[in-house]
Design brief:
Ubiquitin-like (UB roll); alpha+beta
């Protein structure tokens, strides 16, 4: 069984953020994106989210 997650575009790269569930808050999601990319949550834009 695959772990639920999302694909995040950062610059020209696509990154997979795993362990994102229906009950994950936006703040938690942005914190996970920050861990992967180093982009602070207040600088992030969440557009066209695709699930995997």
């Amino acid at each position: 069984m695959e772990t639920p997650g999302i694909i995040v575009k950062w610059g020209t790269e696509l990154r997979v953020i795993k362990d994102i569930y229906d009950d994950t808050t936006i703040a938690e999601l942005k914190a996970r994106i920050y861990e992967e990319t180093g982009v602070k949550p207040e600088r992030q834009k969440l557009l066209n989210l695709r699930t995997i």
